[in-house]
Fold this sequence. Notes:
This protein has 8 helices and 6 strands; from the N terminus they run E-H-E-H-H-E-H-H-E-H-H-E-H-E. The chain has helices spanning 19-30, 45-50, 52-76, 93-100, 103-116, 133-143, 153-169, 189-201; strands at residues 8-12, 33-35, 84-86, 125-130, 175-179, 206-210. The longest helix has 25 residues, at 52-76. It starts with 7 loop residues before the first strand and ends with a strand.
Amino acid sequence: xxxxxxxxxxxxxxxxxGKTSLAKRLAERLRSTLVLEHPEQNPFLxxxxxxxxxxxxxxxxxxLFQRIGQLRELAQMDLFNRLxxxxxxxxxxxxxxxxxxxxxxxxLYQQIFDALKPQAPRPDLVVYLQAQPATxxxxxxxxxxxxxxxxxxxxxxxxxxxxSRFFYHFNGSPVLIVNSEKLDFVNDDRDLDxxxxxxxxxxxxxxFFNWGE
Length: 213
């Protein structure tokens, strides 16, 4: 199960899929550096979920600058001396923008993104977690984050579809696509071990991991 070929692993997926929980568990098990996004620090996010058209642009720009700042710090570190696990992929940032922005605001966002994107290091592997929209909605409700209460099932369904389309075309890094419906990496060490084994055995640029197969 050699993981020495990896220096930078990203865990990605839509809201509620468990990417942050998995990133934390991987970093703990692999004794790696952990980089997490911090949605609770975005002052526009609660207002965005209440009124998306009005607050989409400041919400997106705050996240973009926050993520770029984190990745810039990461790039300045000796990234290749120690494995780093991160719970966001910068390249997927426009995915949210296209769901909520249009016209001049989308054009402005895209210009800023294109100017900042080259500062981001490229992952050696992206672990893309998938789940059905109903599962995402149930998980978001269950974790009970106050500012997430207005998130609708329809928004999560659109988001899951956008993620699927994004990763269908994404070729910037190798991708391990994981069906997380039956995955319990928080409470079941066997599930986590099996996933780490699959990560270590990864050979192609795109592989699929359906739990239970």
